[in-house]
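FIELD: query
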Amino acid sequence: MDKLPKVQQFVSSKARGTVYDNHNYKTSLAYLCRFMNEKYSSLTLETIIDSISHKTIDVYKFLDEFVAFLHTKKLSQASRNQYLTGVKSYLQFHDVDIVPHKFKMRVTVPKIPREDELPIDQNDIRTILLQCHNRRLKTFLLVLASSGVRAIEACALRFCDIYFDENPTRIHIRAKYTKTKLPRDVYISDEASRYLIEWVEHRLGITLDKTSKFNKRSDELVFQVFTTNNRKVEPKTIYNKLIQQFETLLDKVGFGQRKDGMARRQITLHSFRRFVKTTISESPPPAGSDYSEWFLGHIKSSYYVKKPEARAEIYKDKCMKYLTFLDYSTLKATGKTNEARINELEKEKQIMGQKYEQEMQELREQTDRKLNEIIMMIQKNPKLVHLKQDVLMTRPY
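FIELD: result
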């Protein structure tokens, strides 16, 4: 498949300026090739273009058959849609016209079922970490659970992307590996920073302090194991190994359940990102929803702007304690803070209740006074009996 000129032209074009889209398009074409071996064995990925262009094969029927083929494979609906999009892109790249309205009418694409993801909380993460005895994986999970970065973004971290001399520790996410193709800086907890320092010292065989420099090795990936210059390690390679170790850990802890009818686990590395988003959104102001959208690198309001120093302070003062899992002194202090906050809310509730009762009592007394005055007015002038009560109530006294 890779030797076909049209395939090479398409794949190389899609690889420009991206990291993994090239791989996704190749996978799409691989499924297309398998489909054609079953239904159109006399054609190749090159000759199918000519057949469709000359109307020998109806493109909409062809794509509908491809959708049916994908449905027989053990894939998520999101993956099927992605591969269908890749095939459409390949055909359109080679001047095959696909009219959106006709495609919608002629090709039935199942909708992606909406399903809430299984949530995890601080106790679940602590349980996972306590059972993790792999130094690299434990550090990796702490970085995810305190920064909310995507797994591939963490795998792509270099030594020069980490700023241990700042408080809290700042990490730089390269645009090349972000979903939005925009760089951003986020923070990790003191706990994650401490484990990360221990991993770097173990990995490089050095002792770090705030003035340490990595010199020539600064471009190496933090979570790679091999240190030889003759072997370039890609973030995807690190990710594949860590995901295997993580799934083994989930089975060990008892969190290895899979989604209904799918090979995908209910708890994934992306679950840590959801946890961070939820935690920061519910943290006390000035943290909150706007800050969490910025922190995760989502599209945020153009009116939400803060200086880097202010953002760091918000994370340190309002968020970090809720993103700490193994530092028991911090957890104990957080527990006391939560207890104090609960007591404060209870006092506020009592005060509001007392204020409400006082206002109701004043209202009752005011109403009684007005009624007594009305009765006295009627006794003095019996003709007032024929007036409506609301007129009497609004009469100045």
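FIELD: remark
The chain has three domains: 5-106, 122-326, 331-393.
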